[in-house]
Amino acid sequence: MEMKSTAAAAAAEGEGFTGWAGLWSAVASLLFLFSILKEFIPFQLQDYLAALAGRLHALLSPYATVTIDDQSSDYFSGNEAFLAVEAYLSHACARRARKLRADLGKDARALQVSVDDDQEVIDSFRGATLWWYPSKKTNRSNVFSFYPGEDERHFYKLVFHRRHRDLVLDDYLPHVLAEGRAVTVRNRQRRLFTNNPGADWAASEDGRVWSHVKLEHPSTFATLAMDPSRKQEILDDLDMFRDGKDYYAKVGKPWKRGYLLFGPPGTGKSTMIAAMANFLDYDVYDLELTAVKSNTELRRLFIETTGKSIIVIEDIDCSIDLTGKRKKKKKKVKVSDKKKMMMPPWARDEDEEKKVTLSGLLNFIDGLWSAHGGERIIIFTTNHKEKLDPALIRRGRMDMHIEMSYCCFEAFKVLAKNYLGVEEHGLFGEIRRLLGEVEMTPADVAENLMPRSKRKDVDACLVRLVKALHEAKEKAAAAAGNKEDDDSSTSSSEDYDSDEDGKEKQ
Ligand SMILES: Nc1ncnc2c1ncn2[C@@H]1O[C@H](COP(=O)(O)OP(=O)(O)OP(=O)(O)O)[C@@H](O)[C@H]1O
Ligand SMILES: [Mg+2]
């Protein structure tokens, strides 16, 4: 932002400057004359005269300006202030402007209305009147460009009376930024990011490390089947986190939170992540660790995540060997030496031993914790909590451990309501008893409850579930009988082993 005095405001409003009227009309005439003669004045002289006029205005004008530009010196924050002002104006004042621009902006959910260039927008804040002027400036350059518009700089000029300087700088601008950011978050289409393999970063045109699609998972906490008191605990925790900026600052903790979701396959871990993202209105970064070649790549991926996001590593025990070696081998991507030289350092796989290690992952999480850039949540899921290194899941890294378990009766009731629209039924008693005796995942219960035709036959669905529960019970009893026989004959044959993927035979 750049601040200076201007005469532009004088033309905008006559707030207490009647005495200056004559002087301003003289300045306005001069400006008019200058715009006519501009064509005939050499460039160098034009710049000099413009600077002189600027200084004259600064000296005489009772108004000050702040310019907010669409280019920022800070690489990572980009033009955040500019975008926040744009969002604020489109939300708070655009309807008062006479010329509007409507656009389906990048990642927006609906048509966005914004103020057109050179349109004055008047805002008021605690009794002060403020004028906004969206505008653009074309850089004069001798270089011919194939891309017209790339030399264009857009900016917003805020004009206010000098006596409101403190109010504007201390209160109004922070208010605009906060409101603008909130509007952007409300309007944006949430995204699901997945990491591109490192070898592709340099090869792709824009060097993107993450690709994204719209996040449109329908899961919510209302449709998530689990123990209601545990669900409420998680909701309270998320609520506390979302609104806890001041609290986290007060206790000196970074505004981040880690959740470990563990439990057998089909118990709703991935469903829970989608419900969390929908509840918080956050983006999701689905980090596929097996596609990451080195700790350096991992760091780069982390740097390119944004605030208000959930970073997810699914099946963490299958993605990384906790002794430091990785389990799953990605198909080797052959890169020629010449191509390698053209790659940025993080994308080169010069040292085969430089793999993602446990310590790299711990650094990743701790880096996440100490970095700026807004609130972030990290979630690990696993089917085997006991296989994880305690360092990885200690409190402070994974703050809350959430067990997703087999379907209990309360969880069944949520599914029955979602899938069949029933809250009571004669078979509920038997189902309650069977669910207490046999372990069935919510995924299996849901599958049995799913109507097989458009004519929703509630009785048939519930009878099918009861039958499936009886079958599961018999199977479990038979398996237990077999195990007893095995134990008595060969006590040494402990073959409860795990496959390459780490998923144990159940
Ligand atoms: N608790 C649940 N509430 C509602 N639906 C569920 C629940 N658990 C499972 N489901 C249903 O089962 C399907 C599979 O569940 P999900 O993918 O969330 O399981 P998971 O625990 O992530 O399994 P995995 O460990 O194999 O990744 C979901 O699409 C959903 O329809
Ligand atoms: Mg899953």
TrEMBL record:
Residues 255-408 form the AAA+ ATPase domain. Coiled coil: none annotated. It comes from the Eukaryota. GO terms for molecular function: ATP binding; ATP hydrolysis activity. Residues 476-506 are annotated as: Disordered. Keywords: ATP-binding, Magnesium, Membrane, Nucleotide-binding, Transmembrane, Transmembrane helix. Pfam families: AAA, AAA_assoc, AAA_lid_At3g28540. Its cofactor is Mg(2+). The chain crosses the membrane at residues 20-37. InterPro entries: AAA+_ATPase, AAA_N_dom, At3g28540-like_C, ATPase_AAA_core, ATPase_AAA_CS, Mitochondrial_chaperone_BCS1, P-loop_NTPase. It catalyses: ATP + H2O = ADP + phosphate + H(+). Residues 484-506 have a biased composition (Acidic residues). GO terms for biological process: response to stress. Belongs to the AAA ATPase family. BCS1 subfamily. This is AAA+ ATPase domain-containing protein. It comes from Oryza meyeriana var. granulata.
